[in-house]
Amino acid sequence: MNAMWIDQTVDATVEFPSGLLFPRLRAIRFRDEEIPFPQPARVDATPSALVYRAYAGASEYTLRFEPARQRWILELVQRSSTLL
Q1: Where do the domains of the chain lie?
Q2: Considering 12, 52, 57, 67, which has the largest number of Cβ atoms within 10 A of its Cβ?
Q3: What is the Cα–Cα distance from 46 to 37, expressed in whole angstroms?
Q4: Of 61, 60, 62, which is closest to residue 81 (Cα–Cα)?
Q5: Positive or negative, the Cα torsion across 78, 31, 16, 21?
Q6: The pTM is what?
Q7: CA–CA distances in Å: residue 43 to residues 34, 46, 52, 64
Q8: How far apart are CA 18 and CA 15, in angstroms?
C-alpha cells in the first residue's frame, strides 16, 4: 500500500440526512479534480473533529472535519490495488 500525507484544506460536498448527527461526505475537490465517494464513509469522533475514511476506486482518503472552523482537511491518501 502506498500512502501520501497531504494535510491540505479541501472543499467538500456533503449532505445532511435527517436523523444523522454528522454530515455525510459525498465528494471533495482536490488539485482541481472532484473525487466522488459513492459509498458512505466511516466516521470516528474526536474531541475537536470528525475523522472520515472514504473510498474512491483503489484509494482510501482520510479527512478531518473541524466543526468549530467549518473546514475539511485531507490528511492522507492510501493507494492500493487490493482495495475494493
Answers
A1: 23-59
A2: 52
A3: 22
A4: 60
A5: positive
A6: 0.87
A7: 21, 10, 5, 10
A8: 10
Rg over CA atoms, the chain: 12
CA–CA–CA angle 53, 29, 83 (5° rounding): 35
The residue behind cell 482510501 is 60
Per-residue pLDDT of the chain (84 residues; tens, 9 = 90+): 688 889 999 999 999 989 888 899 999 999 899 999 999 999 999 999 999 999 999 999 999 999 999 999 999 999 976 544
Question: Terminus-to-terminus CA distance in the chain, angstroms?
Answer: 13
Q: Are 22 and 50 in contact (CB under 8 A)?
A: yes
Residue 45 has what pLDDT? Answer: 95
